[in-house]
Amino acid sequence: MAFKRVLPIGIVLVLVLLGGWWYRHRGTGVEATSAGSAARSASAPASATTAGLPPSAQTDQVPGIAIPGDTPGNIPGDIPEVGSSAGPSPLPVGQEAAVDPSAFLDEALPGRGVYAGAQKCQECHARKFDGWSHDWHARALSRPTSRTVVGKFNNAHYKGTSSEAWMRRKGSKYVMRTLDASGEMSDFPVQWLIGGKRMQDTVTVLEDGRWQVLPIYYHVTGAGAWVDYNETKQGPVTPEHPFFWTNWRRNANHECLDCHVTGLDVRYDRQTRHWTTEFVDAGVACESCHGPGARHSESRDPADIVHPGEVTKEVGLALCGQCHGPRNPLFPLLDSEHRFRPGQEYDEKYQALVVTNGRERSGDFFADGRPKSSSFEYQALVQSQCYLKGQATCLSCHTAPHDTHGANELKPTKASRGHAAQPIGDATCQGCHADVFAKGQAHTHHRSPVARSCVSCHMPKAVTGVLDQFADHTLDVPVPQNTSRHGVPNACNSCHTDQTPEQMADALNLLWPDASRRQARRILLADAIDEATAAQSFPALKAIVSAPFEAPTLRGAGAMLLAQRFPQQSPAILAPLLRDRHPLVRSRAVEALAAAVGPRSADLLVPMTHDPALQVRHAAAVMLASFGDPRGIAPLEALAKAPESRTMVQPHMLLGLNALRHRDLNTAQAELEIATDLMPYHTAALLVLSDVFAMKGEIGKASERLEQVLQFDPQNKGAIERLQKGLGP
Predict the structure, then answer these.
(1) For residues 234 and 655, what is the distance between their CA atoms, to the nearest angstrom?
(2) CA nearest 647: which of 618, 607, 689?
């Protein structure tokens, strides 16, 4: 399992722009002044508990067996046989979910945000429920039983460079014995399973309610073997490392569950430091794609549910993109009220992670902007001409999880009059490219059935993840020239390994002379994006960001690169993007202008605080306030108060910093408390809040906030330095 969640949009860039102002000015004898305080709105209540299981699993439990490091609670009590290396078939799952009565308000029907649970859907949609329950989406999260556990718990042993574990049975429980936070060996019960199709992760729940992913995974498609995927990605991982399994970066509540359950509600009590995790259904159930369904279950009105096949391409793609498109979220994890709901567009809640993350370059992309890591299917497809021109979405090639399908939810194929059945994966191409199919071998120029496949040339398995290879969803033509110039793999050389990229380029131009037009786009993107040729990238970047029909995600990434590499030349190119029709482009242009010329961009950014798109208004207000421009304060206050945006973190953070600049410690404290209530793991806000308490002479509270920083980031230099200087007790 990859950990893809990142900080909400803008935090990384804002922290860079702030430049540590508050730390330089802490301890200057500032006295508290009176000020009003704001209060966070109550979190939306959970729709149901974590009992997202079949009735048999809900009742077939025994008291937990005392094991060192165990968590009080019940584990399913059947005693399975030792797991087989062969992957099990998915099992039916579902539950009755309690409906929150407060959501009814004055209506006779449930509110549109109230979940019903998959079992309620089954009452009218039994066939679809059965189809879904045997699909892997239903097994995104499950309890460990003899039928769900894939790995061998027969005292199997794994030893890596820095990790070691034994997988065994203790009575009715599955247990992993491995290093704990102190570096000692302890037993941890396996209480939940994530996946099982390619990789199966095991999860234990600690005493403070944290769901932590245990360090050793079972690689189902890797001939059945225990592996340390984390160590493969990070190198040696000791207890001090951020990615050690007991630390925050391996926390499933934050990193995993929003894509592995339906109707997630995670809460954190800052006083007791305890996490509470609830959800409607374990797994990706009906309402993950169709939206909360309690109202529809009562009204039977089609307008009260989302039909993925009857929405715009933007809405349709977002249904899958919410999990198959790593992103910077506008709202924090604990804000269940503003969580993405089916029926919304991706950009309403997220900014796609593409090429850059703030000022840092992402390692998940090739030099031409194509994703090279799995889970980025959204970022790949929105670059494709199939999407940009052909309106294709995931459902163009894949079925819904509840429908009959081939491998990987691909649509099944059959012969029709005049046409032979095509291989699964190629059949949907024929709908738009019938003329190409009619040419047959005259187009493919290959005799091998594999080589004649559309997928082999246009969706090569160049994407890596969880130790497997995946198809490239940018659906483009091979460009061997980019292999030579920029180190980007191409489909031709994946088969013709005895040939050079230059030889493949010559052969491709001879056999498909018209391909040069399509290749020119990818060559331009690589010339623009590749860090190795950054010094010569200005013309290519200018062309990319100014191209109205290029993918907005790539134009936005290009804007950030242009600002970083050519700050003095970029404003004239970036300013027109503030009027672009795509909110994502406008938002990235705001950030890029701020990064390029800082406060000198303020006059251009002020009008953007009235943009119709929330993410643009937010970006403009945040950038202005980070400069210390007073014109950013009113927009921040509006964002902090409006129902649609009051749970965004940065407005409260920046209002707190602004109050601190004006030596209003009470207001600074109030706003920063709201920010850390919304995002308890926001270590920068906790650091500033510690400084505020220190300035007010409340050393105990200052020390407590620093301890909270270290709880989420044990190696945080700011917190360690402050404690060493005497802030601690």
Answers:
(1) 36
(2) 618
**In this structure, how many other beta carbons lie within 10 angstroms of the beta carbon of residue 559?**
30
Give CA–CA dist 60/92, Å, rounded. 16
Q: What is the pLDDT of residue 321?
A: 96
Residues 6+ apart with CB under 8 A from 225: 85, 218, 219
Per-residue pLDDT, 467: 83
Which of 667, 82, 608, 131 lies closest to 403 in space, CA to CA? 131
Residue 615 CA to residue 611 CA, distance in Å, equals: 9
CA distances from 379 to 134, 384, 551 (A): 28, 9, 10
d(CA 665, CA 696): 8
DSSP assignment, residue 147?
T
Among the listed residues 144, 300, 112, 277, the one whose alpha carbon sits nearest the alpha carbon of residue 206? 277
Handedness of CA 24, 30, 35, 37 (dihedral sign): positive
**Overall size of the chain counted in residues:** 729
- In this structure, the number of other CB atoms found within 10 A of the CB of residue 619 comes to 29
SS3 annotation, 220-273? CCCCCEEECHHHHHHCCCCCCCCCCCCCHHHEHHHHCHHHCEECCEEEEECCCC
Instruction: Please give the single-letter amino acid code of residue 107.
Output: E
CA 652 to the chain's CA centroid: 24
Q: Cβ neighbours of residue 277 under 8 Å, at least 6 residues apart?
A: 50, 209, 211, 253, 257, 264, 265, 266, 267
SS3 at position 281: strand
Residues of the chain with pLDDT under 70: 1-107, 414-424, 727-729
How far apart are alpha carbons 265 and 338 in whole angstroms?
Answer: 11
| CATH of the structural domain 11-41+530-727, one choice from 3.30.1490.20, 1.10.10.10, 1.25.40.10, 3.20.20.150 | 1.25.40.10
> What tokens were used for 666?
């009470």
Comparing CA positions, the residue from 292, 301, 297, 256 lying closest to residue 277 is 256
Instruction: Give which of 367, 388, 470 is closest to 432, Cα–Cα.
Output: 388
pLDDT of residue 360: 85
DSSP annotation of 33 reads: -
Under 8 Å between Cβ of 655 and 638: no
Among 615, 692, 627, 690, CA closest to 654: 627
pTM: 0.84
DSSP state of 723: I
Q: How confident is the model at residue 724, as a pLDDT?
A: 87
pLDDT for 590-625, tens place per residue?
A: 999 999 999 999 999 999 999 999 999 999 999 999
Quick one: which H or E segment has residue 159?
A: strand 156-159
Distance CA(391)–CA(650), nearest Å, equals 35
Q: Are 370 and 383 in contact (CB under 8 A)?
A: yes
Q: Is 308 left (phi over 0), alpha (psi -120 to 50) or beta?
A: alpha
Nearest C-alpha neighbor of 189 from the set 164, 207, 608, 402: 207
Residue in this structure with the two tokens 């798109």, named with its chain if needed: 613
The maximal CA–CA distance of the chain, rounded, in angstroms, is 85
Angle, vertex CA 500, rays to CA 467 and CA 482, nearest 5: 70
Q: Give the domain ranges of the chain.
A: 11-41+530-727, 55-299
